[in-house]
Design a protein that fits this description.
- With 228 residues, this protein is mainly β.
- Helix content is 14%, strand content 38%.
- It has helices at 51-68, 112-124; strands spanning 19-28, 37-46, 78-85, 96-108, 127-136, 145-148, 174-176, 183-195, 198-199, 206-208, 212-222.
- The chain has a 6-stranded mixed beta sheet with strand order 3-4-2-1-5-6, covered by helices on one side. The chain has a 3-stranded antiparallel beta sheet with strand order 7-8-11, with no helix packed on it. A two-stranded antiparallel sheet has the order 9-10.
- The radius of gyration is 24 Å and the shape is elongated.
- The structure holds zinc ion (2 copies).
- One zinc ion (ZN) binds at residues 137, 139, 142, 144, 169, 171-172.
- One zinc ion (ZN) is lined by residues 177, 179-180, 182, 200, 202-203, 205.
């Protein structure tokens, strides 16, 4: 329970918001790199815009990024100050004030696990988290991108409508067997008559019902981890 003054009933002040953390993840560079490069930008704005609070927020942001991305390869952190500038009034110079600090890193491959860990760490440290992810399909040659707001999950949770998974868009005919969770790629050719049904090679679940207007072939991508 949190009291009005921000202290919790157990006496800790850990849950009191100390500021806002805006997390932005987007593909970087061309689609030719495999795995794809992503840029992660974390902007932390302390509730109290004082130089010492901003210095503390920067140290925390770096520490949490290090912790969240431990074990994954990423390029060196780049930090930038974020200034708020009031419009110049007549006869007065514009006033600038340091209000936030931004830390950026670049990593190889979709950093979904690390950014999820980072969001948890930020919340544990009393930050409100605003996140936006722009992702690129990991399939070679595919240019599909999607924007996801992880704080506002859609009806499929973290996966976008129309996407097969967090890293693969819906254009590639992937199918997960509901029976054993094996993943197949479905390839179709036109059938002259009603096509035969197609069953999972691992568990026998019918993946495509009899009578489809296309003839389907299935290619096993990943067998279920569950052994029969
Ligand atoms: Zn795709
Ligand atoms: Zn199956």
């Amino acid at each position: 329970m949190e009291q009005a003054d921000g202290t919790r009933s157990d006496g800790s002040t850990e849950a009191r918001p100390r500021g806002t953390a805006a997390l932005h993840v987007a593909p970087s560079g061309g689609a030719a790199t495999n795995p794809r490069r992503y840029v992660v930008v974390l902007e932390v704005t302390p509730d109290v815009a004082r130089a010492d609070e901003i210095t503390k927020a920067l140290a925390l942001a770096k520490r949490l990024l290090d912790e969240a991305f431990a074990g994954s390869s990423y390029a060196q952190l780049v930090t930038r100050d974020v200034w708020a500038t009031d419009r110049a009034h007549r006869g007065q110079a514009a006033a600038s004030a340091l209000m936030a600090v931004e830390v950026e890193l670049e990593c190889l491959g979709w950093p979904g696990e690390s950014t999820a860990r980072l969001q948890t760490l930020l919340k544990q440290n009393g930050y409100r988290v605003i996140a936006e992810e722009r992702r690129a399909c990991a399939e070679e040659g595919c240019r599909s991108e999607a924007v996801l707001l992880p704080n506002r999950p859609n009806r499929r949770g973290r996966v976008d409508d129309g996407w097969y998974s967090e890293t693969i868009c819906g254009k590639h005919n992937y199918k997960t067997c509901p029976g054993c969770r094996s993943v197949f790629r479905l390839l179709s050719t036109n059938a002259s008559g009603p096509a035969a049904s197609v069953a999972c090679t691992e568990c026998g679940f019918v993946l495509v019902e009899w009578g489809s207007s296309k003839h389907w072939e299935i290619e096993l991508v990943t067998a279920s981890a569950v052994s029969s």
